[in-house]
Structures are given as structure tokens and as C-alpha cells.
Amino acid sequence: MAKISRIITIQSLPKMSEASSSSSARSTGPSEKDGVRVIAKKESKAAADCLAQAFRNDEVAQYFVKTRDTEHWSEDERWALHVRIMRSLVLAHCIKGLALTVGPNHDGVALWMPPGKSLDDRMTMFRSGMWTLNLKLSKEGKRRFQKEFLPLLHDTKREVLRHLDNDSWYLVYIGTKPEARGKGYARMLIEYVTKQADAQGHTCYLESSNDINPAIYRKFGFDTVKKIQLTDGPSPVGLDIMVRQPISRNPSHELTHLEHHGQTAGNGIDSAANMHGNI
Question: Is the pTM of this model over 0.85?
């Protein structure tokens, strides 16, 4: 089975949904007066509920839930599985990655994987409950997840980042609650890490599953370098692969082949809608 952390990597923010933490992120990121803070494990469920709302209609997030063999499931059953997936992912990032929130009621949430870290170890899988997803997904959902989604994301990230694959920040999910959009929460959650990435010379990477979001991400310095598709469903689901170079350019941290992938420069920003979800 492909390593489970690779699924997360999809910053599949379904429309950039305005839907153990790194110690360096704690020390160099914006202070709490800016509204962004690291999520504690005890509040992971509340944070996950934010992402669940943000990605309720995201094609990538639903790719393993709404399958042909779950057509007989009730909407409540599908929703329960969707929420379970988000809760496992948020808790896993609290344990091993960087889980951030903003707003008085977990109104915006972002899951980042710092350089040199992953969710592949068994202890994190066990403590977060991610291992149980293998039991909860339907037969078709499990096949899509293990045989198509994880390998495609893993191989694409390695192809694009090459020697920077293990030395970059990975935005896995970002989303805001529908009622909290338009307040700049997505910007705060992204810049909390990109400022640190610039200071340390790190590249940032994400996958966007919504046509609206790439333009938003470009405002934060991301460029589209490749497009991929999930093709096992009734219709193809596209993902934009986006990379952000550190502003303080360090030759050893630069990708030299972005033009080969057809990068497009963009301009612009503020409230995103669903990255994987809705910002």
C-alpha cells in the first residue's frame, strides 16, 4: 500500500476552501495576536469539523466516499465517513505535522507537513486512527485511495520537486467555514508558513482540486507547474500542482525545471475558497 501520508499531500483543497507540530514553526511564525495558533490534540475534532464543512462538496475529498458501491449508503453514512477521514488527518498533523487554526471557533484550518517530516510511521498512524480508514472505506473507495490516488500524488510530488521532495513545506489541506469566508483567514494560514519558508529558503508545494483556487494561490507566490487527473470515477477529477519558490532565492533550494512543466505566472489575492476545499 502506498504510504498514507501521500494522500494528504494533495492539498486537494476542493475549491480552495476558505474551508507533533514543528518547533521552528512555533517560534518563527506570527504571534497569536495575529490570530493564527497551533491546534492542540484536544481540539482536533473541532478543527476537523471545519475542514469537513469546507470540503463537503469537493470532488477530491469525496473521491473515496462517493463511489459506485456506496450508492446505497445514506447521506448521513457518507458524511460520517467524510468527517472520520478529516478527524484522523487533523489529529495526525497535530502529532507529526503542523495543524493551524484561526478565528474564534476554528473558523479556518490548515494542515502543513514541514520539511523532513511525514505521517508514514506506524505510531502516528495508530495514534491518529488513520489505520482504521482501511476498514471504513468501501472496496472501491479503498482501491481508488491505495491504487490510484496515493501513488499518483507521491510520484508527481517526487517528479516535480526532485531533490527538494524531502526539503519542502507541503500544504495538505486548507479550508474555512462557509460563514467565515472573506475575512482573510486563508491568507493568514498560508503566510504563517510561507514567511518562515522564505526565511529558511524552503520551497512550498500543494495540489489544488478546484478551478477557482489556482488564481488565489498565485497571489501567494505559487505557480502551476503541472496538471494531473484522477480517472477511476465516472468523470476525470483534475488537480493543479503548484509550487512556491522562496522569495529569498537560495540556489540550492530552487527548482530549475519549472518551465519544462509549463509554469504560469499569476498575480493577485485574498480570501480563498477551497484549496482542496474552500478558503
Answer: no
